[in-house]
Design brief:
The protein is of the alpha+beta class and 141 residues long. The chain has 2 helices and 11 strands. The strands form 2 sheets. It has a 9-stranded antiparallel β-sheet. Strands 2-3 form a two-stranded antiparallel sheet.
């Protein structure tokens, strides 16, 4: 009886450790991504040049203002925001009804889905550029 009790306790401890490790496993999407050609097409063969950098729970979007879509100055509109771990990805909310979720797409790519009221309304594919957290300049005023 003591042997069965000892074995049961050990099995229980090992089972609990595995669950704990799964809960704390880090979501690692860190790196630099570029908006894919299929997601960047803004019509008539013109493309929106954007980069996304992820550094732990901080995301930065770098939108080149001088591309064919924006037709602005030779600079980057930069926006940074905090995200939270969400399953095997990252997410944040924009207001009460809009949720943005970032998950792995393929081996290294990124899929960004926009949901409203619980339903996905659009998605973007971002191609992996680098494991480095790059910055772009000049920044637009």
């Amino acid at each position: 009886m003591k042997k069965i009790l000892s074995i049961s306790i050990l099995l229980f401890l090992f089972a609990c450790e595995d669950d704990k490790a799964d809960e704390t496993a880090a979501v690692n999407l860190d790196g630099t991504y570029k908006l894919s050609m299929e997601s960047a097409d803004c019509g008539d063969g013109e493309f929106d040049v954007q980069y996304l950098t992820i550094d732990n729970l901080m995301v930065s979007n770098w939108d080149y203002d001088g591309d064919d879509c924006d037709q602005g100055d030779d600079c980057y509109d930069a926006e940074s925001f905090s995200v939270k771990k969400d399953g095997d990805g990252l997410s944040f909310s924009e207001g009460p009804d809009v949720k943005v979720a970032m998950t792995r797409n393929g081996t290294n790519g990124l899929k960004v889905s926009f949901s409203m009221g619980g339903s996905v309304v659009s998605s973007e594919i971002w191609d992996y550029e680098s494991s480095e957290i790059k910055t772009y300049s000049p920044i637009c005023n």
